[in-house]
């Protein structure tokens, strides 16, 4: 069960989610060959401040050393922006949490630098994004967590992608991570019941290879164990009486 959010708190998440989506729209234009991950982090950090929001990762609650996670190629999530210079054909995932009017929203997307994905990259990215929307579409008002996971899992398994099972979606709002956990697999009709007013982050992660992960020496970066390429899409979603409202989109 989540702590109940007031109408004003949900409205703050709606506004924060729009800000996050606007930052992502601008960020997509900044991503090009020759730019470093650190330069993108600096750009995002300035955008967050300019819009009156807070970079949640940098707060004492999280203590991540940057405003945004930038995970490239075999990196899946939580990667610290580095001096690595992006090249055409790199698969890059961006994951961002902002706090606006004390409320948190969380979103992620994956893109290919240069905008010309090869066949397998396109398959990975499109199917992972499709699985996110399948998870959201499974919400028809009150819903069990397993209904969402089953919908995501079906798309990813049909696409023959590796499903990252050790990392999960989650409730979000007052805190960056609230209950319940939202796995990217599951069985229909099982798991905790989500009710109208609950807000969750749904975030499928998938790979072109296996499902095993490894944590790098920096203690943050999570990569595929077999070095295969990964993708990650995420939205913060409000459960409504008869469906879901995506908060982190324009
Ligand atoms: Mg998340």
Architecture overview:
The protein has 250 residues and is α+β, with helices and mostly antiparallel strands. It has one domain: Creatine Amidinohydrolase (Alpha-Beta Complex). 28% of the residues lie in helices and 27% in strands. The chain contains four helices and 17 strands. It has helices at 7-30, 37-50, 119-137, 145-158; strands at residues 54-55, 69-72, 75-77, 91-100, 103-112, 143-144, 162-163, 169-171, 178-182, 193-194, 199-202, 205-207, 213-215, 222-224, 230-232, 235-239, 244-246. Strands 9-8-11-16-17 form a five-stranded antiparallel sheet. Strands 1, 2, 4 and 5 form a four-stranded antiparallel sheet that branches. Strand 13 (213-215) and strand 14 form a beta hairpin. Helix 1 packs antiparallel against helix 2 (37-50) and helix 3 (119-137) runs antiparallel to helix 4 (145-158). It is globular and about 45 Å long. The mean pLDDT is 97. Bound molecules: magnesium ion. Magnesium ion binds at residues 106, 201, 203, 234.
Describe the protein's topology.
Blueprint (H helix, E strand, L loop, with lengths): L6 H24 L6 H14 L3 E2 L13 E4 L2 E3 L13 E10 L2 E10 L6 H19 L5 E2 H14 L3 E2 L5 E3 L6 E5 L10 E2 L4 E4 L2 E3 L5 E3 L6 E3 L5 E3 L2 E5 L4 E3 L4
Antiparallel strand pairs: 1-4, 2-4, 3-14, 4-5, 6-10, 7-12, 8-9, 8-11, 11-16, 12-15, 13-14, 16-17
Helix pairs in contact: 1-2, 3-4
The structure holds magnesium ion.
